[in-house]
Design goal:
The chain is an alpha/beta fold. It has helices spanning 3-7, 12-27, 49-52, 66-77, 111-122, 203-206, 238-247, 249-256, 269-272, 276-280, 296-308, 311-314, 326-329, 341-354, 378-396, 429-444, 453-469; strands at 56-59, 90-95, 105-106, 133-139, 146-149, 162-168, 171-177, 187-191, 195-199, 207-211, 224-230, 260-267, 285-288, 315-323, 359-363, 399-401, 408-409, 412-413. The strands form 4 sheets. A 7-stranded mixed β-sheet has the order 1-9-6-11-4-2-3, with no helix packed on it. A 5-stranded parallel β-sheet has the order 13-12-14-15-16. A hairpin with a 2-residue loop joins β17 (408-409) and β18. α2 (12-27) runs antiparallel to α17, α7 crosses α8 (249-256) and α14 runs parallel beside α15 (378-396). The longest helix has 19 residues, at 378-396. The radius of gyration is 26 Å and the shape is globular. Residues 28-48 and 235-256 have low confidence and may be disordered.
Length: 471
């Protein structure tokens, strides 16, 4: 039955209700598929409180060596951060990067801080292993605190974690949603001495945090040090750029050259099999950095590499395609895929921060091979991960490239599109013939309608005509 035929059976009141429903859908796109997340998209950061914990981890008794802690305390005391009469905590920037002009001093002068930084980089709870600078904050008494803020300085890599080691008295740290009128405390930590808390990638764009005044009435020492380890990004340092301008006139000329608009592809083997030149059709520049076997951490690393090398100065990325998940869920088995939520949020927010002007598309998983031994969890994990993609993209206002159904035949994985082996996950030449046109259409089309908004608008116009001109 067509939409117009259906309207003929509706009363005026039912038409009004249908109109309101369509208008609500236009204002707030959603998916009606099975197992949909059914979440609100009115605010970027309306998430359940327990979700925020995925971006923060806390570890007590981080350092086991008591003598090392004493030496570290002596080294921190030597920085003369206790003399100021200011109401604000005093801070000191140290970095191992010799190019930095933003830092107060070199961390290489302090062997105990260097040792602590190595312990942090080697710890399993810290996703990164190349944090290279630290900010020492000294709270000389209980009255000193830090107001609500996010660590989003231009010289800090937002695609890396921030790991903070605490010394001496306890303090409470509260986390509040960032960029909204929501002031509720969604997560808090009672940070004790000799502890480490880690804010993973994406945390700074999602949350703000503050350090409350102390309440250690029975403590002998009311002093607290917070040693926050980060990743320094010299290409973002305006002082470093001014040095480059003076030293190399050719660099200035290169920076003034217009950048090439380009599309960037990152992910695993599905994308790696696509030819960037063919996708561009001689009209657009398509850069394919996908590699077989890539998981979400490797994709994050390839994004960082692209940002750091000279290619980033040459290209202006206006489209970004991601294909992840196949390698991430292969060994999930019966434990499910919910633990990948934080990694997906972190990936999307890293891309948005690194390429703020780019339109982002995340590809859904395609059907994976099913055997007698894996049949109990493969289908469920694929569907759950695709719903997880929908959940993340809905909140982050990014696009979904849904190709799952195009690789099905009568509800099952179509063997015509894949290699001969029943266990091979890779698509065959005919499978590329399905995948490539989807990417070509998205790359070259000026209009992409993942939620069928165009159809809904047409239905609204027809419905308005019926309400106004028909009884």
């Amino acid at each position: 039955m067509s939409f117009i035929e259906l309207l003929k059976k509706y009363s005026s009141e039912e038409k009004q209700q249908l109109l309101q429903h369509l208008l609500d859908d236009i204002a707030q796109p959603s998916s009606d598929g099975p197992a949909s997340t059914n979440v609100s998209c009115k605010s970027e950061h309306i998430l359940p409180d327990n979700h925020f914990k995925n971006f923060i981890s806390y570890h007590n008794s981080f350092v086991k060596d008591a003598s090392f802690l004493e030496d570290l305390r002596s080294e921190l005391d030597s920085q003369d951060l206790l003399r100021s009469n200011s109401k604000k905590p005093q801070s000191l920037w140290l970095t191992s990067n010799p190019l930095s002009k933003a830092a107060d001093s070199s961390i290489n002068k302090y062997p105990n801080l260097l040792k602590l930084m190595k312990l942090v980089n080697d710890d399993e709870s810290v996703p990164d292993d190349d944090l290279d600078c630290c900010n020492i904050i000294c709270f000389s008494n209980d009255s000193k605190s830090l107001r609500l803020h996010s660590d989003s300085e231009a010289t800090i890599s937002q695609s890396h974690s921030i790991a903070t080691f605490s010394m001496s008295t306890s303090r409470r740290i509260e986390f509040v949603p960032h960029g909204s009128n929501d002031t509720r405390v969604v997560h808090s930590l009672d940070v004790t001495g000799n502890s480490l808390y880690v804010m993973r990638p994406g945390c700074q764009s999602l949350l703000q945090h503050r350090v409350l005044p102390g309440s250690s009435k029975d403590a002998v020492d009311h002093l607290r040090y917070g040693v926050s380890f980060r990743k320094y990004t010299p290409e973002c340092d305006p002082l470093d750029k001014s040095v480059i301008y003076k030293q190399n006139r050719e660099t200035v000329n290169n920076l003034s050259t217009p950048k090439i608009r380009a599309t960037l592809l990152v992910g695993g083997s599905f994308l790696a099999r696509l030819d960037g030149e063919r996708l561009g059709k001689g009209k657009k520049t398509v850069l394919n950095m996908a590699k077989e076997g890539n998981k979400i951490p490797e994709v994050l690393q390839s994004i960082r590499s692209f940002k750091m090398n000279n290619e980033n100065a040459k290209y202006n990325i206006n489209q970004f395609f991601i294909s992840v998940g196949t390698n991430d869920i292969r060994f999930c088995r019966n434990k499910g895929v919910s633990h990948l939520k934080a990694e997906l949020f972190g990936l999307i927010r890293t891309i948005k921060h690194t390429f703020p002007g780019a339109k982002i598309f995340m590809q859904s998983l395609i059907p994976l091979p099913i055997t007698f031994s894996n049949r109990h969890y493969v289908i469920r994990n694929v569907i759950d991960f695709n719903n997880l993609i929908l959940h993340v993209c809905s909140h982050e206002r990014t696009f979904i490239l849904d190709i799952f159904r195009e690789f099905l035949f009568q509800g099952y994985r179509n063997p015509r599109f894949f290699n001969n082996s029943i266990n091979d996950i890779h698509h065959y030449t005919k499978g590329l013939g399905i995948l490539a046109p989807n990417y070509i259409n998205r790359i070259h089309s000026r209009y992409f309608d993942p939620f069928n908004q165009k159809i809904k608008i047409i239905q609204i116009l027809i419905l308005l005509h019926n309400i106004i001109f028909l009884p």
